[in-house]
Amino acid sequence: MAFLFHKFQEFVKTLAKNSMLSKNPRQLQFEADINRLFLYTSYNRLGRNADEADVDEIIDMASRAPVADQQKQVQENIHLQIKSFCMSMDELLLPDVKKINEGIESSEQSNPAPRRSGLSFAIGRNTPSVKHHDVPETRPLERADVSQRLKDLIGYTLDIKPSQIPHKEAGQGLFLNGECDVGAVVAVYPGVIYSPAYYRYIPGYPRVNAQNSYLITRYDGTVINAQPWGFGGETRDFWDGLTVPEIRPNMQGGEKGPDRFWKLLSKPLDQRQLGNRGNILEGRNPLALAHFANHPAKDMAPNVMICPYDFPLTENEMRVYIPNVVFGDAEEVKMKRFGSFWFKLGGSRNGGPDIPVLKTLALVATRALCDEEVLLNYRLSNSKRRPEWYTPVDEEEDRRRWS
After folding, report:
1. If pLDDT is split at 50, 70 and 90, which confidence band does 113 have?
2. What share of the chain is helix, strand, coil (3-state, %, to 5)?
3. Which of 284, 288, 302 is nearest to 361 (CA)?
4. How far is CA 358 from CA 114, 173, 196, 368, in A?
5. Across the chain, which distance is largest between two alpha carbons, in Å?
6. 259-314 tens-digit pLDDT
7. Please, what is the angle between helix 67-93 and helix 25-46, to 10°?
8. What DSSP designation does 168 have?
9. Residue 71 and residue 96: Cα distance in Å, rounded?
10. Which CATH superfamily is domain 2-401 in?
11. Which strand (E) or helix (H) includes residue 279?
């Protein structure tokens, strides 16, 4: 198996030179990433019983298949893994029917005061949360218990511990507890999803990342803000993503002139105007911690990569384990990118996919992992001033990503 993976990795290194890929730098990087994800996730799907002929077939497909076809296959590969994860979570958290009925009868008789949501504690809500009447009963397991039991089922879980990255701003890091194979979904990126039409509603606009390091952007311009999610919670509950924890950054000497200036200009539109509907989400999701992954230090290599994942909203039974809510109207607004700006092009989009999707992200392992810190290449733009701690993994990839 080690020989097959080495052969596989050697081919991955040649992807950016593929003549089938686009010549537009940004599109080139997107297609190279999809090519890699196709290889990693397809290799994972083969399993440990794969032989050399199987690997050769994947490599041949990656060389010949159009990028659009590879992208569809990546979505299918990721979705199968997410579905398996959701089934494992159901096994851990869903009680049997008899216990559900007994719980409902007991609740109706005693009618206790509503309990404050664990997710509310995590995101800093100050008022008690009223239990949403549609929230189903689950086993009363604490988050730590769910995490450990998930590891027993799938072989790994995630922990948050002090990072091993040797710089003072590294803070907490994301660690894989257990083992996973290359191409495995290691984590999912939680939080509020903003399409380009709703950028002005992102807290802190226009300098949205000045005090928020938990923002991430997909190639299609979709932004996910993980700050409201925090560490998740201790219950399954209704969440609309509007409540943000109070952030007190460690700033020496107070706010500087430019920071005060931008704070005065920072007037994001009131999110409550659009009335987020929210969803019932599982706060004890052990994999909803992708936003804690750190960028590797110098002479270190990333071991995961970002994978865009379009979750089909028709999968109702899985929805509770997808830790995201969409900001704004359900109907997508048609936008077009010009350079670094997005412009509205009239009415809502009518020619979208037949199945409505939730545009989120997952972290996929680029090699086998075992009890180690999860490291993600941040690919910060080289056209802007970057933090002192940032060492590019590949300067050319950074340039193409943000060209």
Report:
1. very low
2. 35, 20, 45
3. 288
4. 30, 27, 14, 28
5. 69
6. 443 344 444 555 555 545 689 999 999 999 999 999 999 999 999 999 999 999 99
7. 50
8. T
9. 38
10. SET domain (2.170.270.10)
11. strand 279-282
User: Pairing relation of β-strands 172-180 and 369-373?
Assistant: antiparallel
Q: What is the pairing mode between strands 191-194 and 324-326?
A: parallel
Q: For residue 355, what are its two tokens?
A: 């199945």
Strands 357-365 and 156-162 come out as unpaired
Q: Residue 206: what are its φ and ψ, rounded to 5°?
A: -90, -15
> Measuring CA to CA, how many Å separate 295 from each of 98, 178, 393, 400?
48, 21, 9, 18
C-alpha 72 chain-centroid distance: 19
Burial class from Cβ neighbours inside 10 Å (0-12, 13-18, 19+) for residue 112 reads: exposed
**CA 68 to chain centroid:** 22
Percentage of residues of the chain with pLDDT beyond 70:
70
